[in-house]
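Researcher: Next sequence.
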Amino acid sequence: DGTFAFAAVPEAIVVSVFRGEDDLVPAVRAAFDVAENEKKSVTLTLPAARDPLTVHVKDDRGYPIATAQVSAISVDAAQPARATGFTDDRGDTTLDGIRGLAARLEVRAPGHAPRAVAVEDGRAEVEVKLERALTVRGFVRSARGGTPLEGVEVTLASELGPRLARTDKDGKFTIDDVASGPTELRLRAAGW
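Model: Next structure:
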């Protein structure tokens, strides 16, 4: 009949309900407090199962990209969901339970710059185009004398978060898999 019970619980409770045994993200999560010697009755309503979202990944020329990793996460805390898939030879993958959610897709493929895409409507399919990856190379030296600086932390800001590198003994650094366009580099070194 769908009922459950717990005995001898702590004061703060979080109950998570999963649709299937292999699910990693709960379909429903509820938090509540139970005072000492109190009995509490809670009703949790499992939302209807969401349809899958099909993602087509192509390169900048329109050719499908195989083995791209596509990860989706709900951006609505009230509707938790997470899914990851890998594209087939046609550049397609299906992410279960994502359609109709406001979600963020992160797409990565070898030799291509990673990309983040927001999905906010109930579309059944999304196409994501990836650019060829670029490599940022540079060197860091002191303002006075031009001496190469070793161990400088180089941070490149990107839509998928910061990318880090350190300079070698010659003051050189390399950051791979970067998208084209404006970017920002930040340098940090002890004593400078």
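Model: The chain has a mean pLDDT of 90. The chain has no helices and 14 strands.
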